[in-house]
Design brief:
hydrolase, Aminopeptidase O isoform X8, about 30% helix, protease, alpha+beta, 24 strands, aminopeptidase activity, eight-stranded mixed sheet, Peptidase_M4/M1_CTD_sf, five-stranded mixed sheet
Length: about 775
């Protein structure tokens, strides 16, 4: 098979052949070494042959083509000189020097194991050739393809699950008395299909099987974007080993994780949500259709805390002096791209006193909100689902913890800790059952490239959200909480339709935040109108300064969701560096949902949204799934000319500003709060033009916006003596740079605007919070 990327394009390949075989469960066993900046260990993959999801189309060109078998050059792995350590055989001889972990390693930069060192190919251009058939055509061996890059794969072997004590109960056929490939595969088939109420037993046997000995090494090879594995003589996916172990190590320059220091100067590492997702952390099936569960054991020095996407609030187990082990698990199948890990010297933040009552911390379930507790069978694959748990459906505030460097304790206690309960409660009042049973919130290092990131059971927040008043922290927290429903519990089947995640989260953050503040309906409406004004300006700026092809929310049009016969595909513009700065999926998605909510009325729309969540949680969707169900629930008199086709044409498949939005904004009258802000903006533009001298007050508040504005002026006027200030700002406040700069100020990367426009947009942003808190005078100074 071969996926050849055009050097002039920036698409991200998803090469895993999920059309032939699916990973059902991952067991990771890892050591984190800060000295060498390497994560090393093993991963055991449990498979189920065949794609249980119906193929959407075979119309797109097959991206994986067979090559001549003569070109197929597989190799046996070289001996592993740095063996992986399992919990059951942990050695007390391994060292610890405070910042390394139990396993000593050396920084791997040579790629001597034969893997391609593809960091220099950051553009994603690959000329490497995949060979051998990935299906079962003719006499070719079946080829397993996993998404993988920036990894040193050391060994691949079949796992002898038949050697696990007690596993024989899964061998249902009495004729299979001799250990064979057929017996081992039958055991795995039985294990991966256990009913949901036996999830504890299932996890236990997954763990036991992962510790079983190997029963034969497998041929493997790697290239820029994939790991290919085969077993000689095995021609069909159904006969391929259903449990394999891959021993590997990450590379310090791997793009899935970031090695850095926290705000206290202590080393840490975390997954950054990069364009390549987790393929540089472990070999996996990246396509979202590969919904799997996982469990992971991670060893690190005893001074470190390991946080991860997991249903359990893990506690460390001391293995020997100076080294601890952490174990997490997930029973809800999700794409491997949602897996997240962070290791650092975090401290759990707890409130010193009882939470204040200025924001609601508890809500009782009113009769008008009780309709979200539907009865019936869920539509997803079987797992222990909270939507079928009576106590979970009424749980407004799920258990939560906050972690951060000790130096941020005061800021967390003052701002973040008191916001989490009301924001969780507000989200429950709008959408119903929390999809996940618990939540960790981590304040990530200063070089984190955005304001926040949501993953199952854990949210990353930038330290920038802790500055100033509670508005930035509250709205960002609400945004990430909304992703529990849209983006995680309900995911996009085609990654190019990210508006299904970001558009919903942006729309819901306003609704959640208004409820968390307990605003009166008129206050909530005015605040949301003002925020709509801000987003309208940002969208106009985005459209003026971005390529048209990147402004389309459904770029694949009628081929959205289509994959090749093998399951491989490419993500349009997935590797474009500018995409990280783009807000169009947030903004156009937000305005589309706002348009639909106004057409239906809020009560009708959010009642439908709760019904939609109950119908599609635990599943992957396309735009038409949401739109078709929505239109079916709209009364005929409100539907007017709305149709899926019209919405595709006007909102999702065209660049620029949607015509319905242009008409709406042209006819919209500014709300009272927006008029007050506009008046203040005009006033301060006039004041700013006057030449005057002003003494600095000792009590003046200094905001991050001042630093940002200074950096703008330094760049604009090429004041080279102050370039160090710009460098420091970009290093210490990356959360503000890509997000705040792109959203709330004219982007430097696209050129500076006239002084008045810059001043006006900045004032708009600050005045929103100032007016809401009656602190306009203080802010203006």
């Amino acid at each position: 098979m071969d996926v050849k990327l055009d050097p002039s394009r920036d698409d991200l390949p998803l090469l895993a052949n999920t059309g032939h075989i699916l990973v059902k469960h991952y067991v990771l066993d890892l050591d984190v070494d800060f000295k060498s900046q390497i994560i090393e260990g093993s991963i055991v993959l449990f498979f189920e042959p065949g794609n249980r999801f119906k193929k959407q189309s075979s119309s797109i060109e097959e991206t994986c083509q067979s090559e001549s078998n003569e070109a197929c050059k597989f190799r046996m792995p070289e001996p592993c000189h740095n063996p992986v350590t399992h919990t059951s055989t942990f050695s007390s001889k391994m060292g610890y020097d405070g910042f390394s972990v139990c396993g000593k390693g050396v920084k791997d930069t040579s790629g001597k194991d034969g893997n391609h060192d593809n960091w220099e190919q950051a553009s994603g251009i690959s000329s490497s050739k995949y060979c051998c058939d990935t299906g079962n055509h003719g006499s070719e061996d079946f080829l397993l393809v996993l998404d993988c890059c920036d990894l040193s794969v050391l060994k691949v072997e079949e796992v002898d699950v038949a050697a696990v004590p007690g596993i024989e109960k899964f061998a249902r056929s009495p004729t299979l008395t001799v250990v064979s490939e057929e017996l081992r595969n039958q055991i795995i088939r039985e294990l991966v299909t256990l009913p949901a109420d036996r999830w504890r037993e299932q996890l236990d046997y997954y763990a036991r099987c992962s510790q079983a000995p190997g029963c034969g090494e497998l041929l493997f090879d790697t290239d820029t974007w994939s790991l290919q594995i085969r077993k000689t003589g095995t021609q069909a996916a159904t006969d391929f080993p259903h449990a394999i172990r891959i021993r590997y190590r990450t590379k310090p320059q791997g793009r899935s994780v970031t090695w850095t220091s926290d705000q206290s100067g202590r080393p840490c590492v975390y997954t950054m949500g990069s364009p390549i997702n987790n393929r540089a952390l472990f070999p996996c099936q990246e396509p979202p259709v590969a919904m799997s569960t996982w469990q992971a054991t991670v060893r690190a020095a005893a001074s470190f805390v390991v946080l991860m996407s997991g249903e359990n609030s893990a506690k460390p187990t001391q293995l020997h002096e100076g080294c601890s082990s952490w174990h997490y698990y997930v029973t809800m199948p999700m794409p491997a791209s949602t897996f997240t890990i962070a290791v650092g010297s975090w401290a759990e933040m707890k409130p010193e006193t009882c939470l204040s009552n200025d924001l609601a911390t508890e809500r009782s379930l009113s009769s008008s909100e009780a309709d979200f507790r539907y009865v019936g069978v869920c539509g997803h694959m079987e797992y222990p689902c909270r939507f079928q748990n009576a106590s979970a459906t009424t749980q407004e505030i799920i258990p939560h913890r906050v972690f951060a460097p000790v130096c941020l304790k005061g800021a967390c206690q003052e701002t973040l800790l008191r916001l989490i309960p009301p924001c969780l409660s507000a989200a429950h009042s709008v959408l119903g059952t929390h999809p996940f049973s618990r939540l960790d919130v981590l304040i990530v290092p200063a070089n984190f490239p955005s304001l926040g990131m949501a993953s199952p059971h854990i949210i990353f927040l930038s330290q920038s959200t802790l500055t100033g008043m509670s508005h930035l922290c509250g709205t960002r927290l609400c945004h990430e909480i909304a992703h529990a429903w849209f983006g995680l519990a309900i995911g996009a089947r085609d990654w190019t339709e990210e508006w299904l995640s970001e558009g919903f989260a942006t729309h819901l953050e306003d609704v959640f935040w208004a409820r968390a503040q307990q605003l009166a309906p008129r206050e909530a409406q005015e605040q949301q109108e003002l925020r709509a004004c801000l987003r309208w300006r940002r969208l106009q700026d985005e459209v003026r300064n971005s390529p048209e092809e990147m402004q389309v929310l459904r770029p694949n049009k009628e081929e959205t969701g289509c994959v090749s016969d093998s399951g491989s595909s490419v993500i349009k513009h997935g590797l474009n560096p500018e995409k990280a700065f783009m807000q169009v999926h947030y903004l156009k998605g937000y305005f589309l949902l706002r348009f639909l909510a106004k057409r239906l009325g809020d009560d009708t729309y959010f009642s439908f949204l709760r019904k939609f969540v109950h119908t599609f949680h635990g599943q992957l969707i396309l735009s038409q799934d949401f739109l078709q169900m929505l239109l079916e629930n709209i009364p005929e008199e409100k539907r007017l000319e709305l149709s899926v086709e019209n919405i595709f044409r006007d909102w999702l498949e065209s660049s620029g500003i949607p015509q319905p939005l242009q008409r709406e904004r042209g006819a919209a009258a500014a709300c009272g709060l927006a008029r007050r802000v506009s008046a203040e903006v005009a006033k301060w533009i006039r004041v700013n033009r006057r030449p005057r001298k002003r003494k600095r007050r000792e009590t003046e508040e200094v905001f991050e916006k001042v630093r940002h504005r200074w950096c703008e002026l330094v760049v604009k006027h090429r004041y080279t003596k102050a370039y160090k200030d710009v460098e420091r700002f970009l290093q210490e406040d990356q959360g503000l740079f890509p997000a705040e700069l792109r959203r709330k100020a004219p982007p430097l990367v696209h050129g500076l605007r006239p002084r008045d426009a810059e001043c006006g947009l900045w004032l708009f942003c600050g005045l929103e919070a100032a007016l809401s808190h009656g602190r306009l005078g203080t802010w203006a100074h």
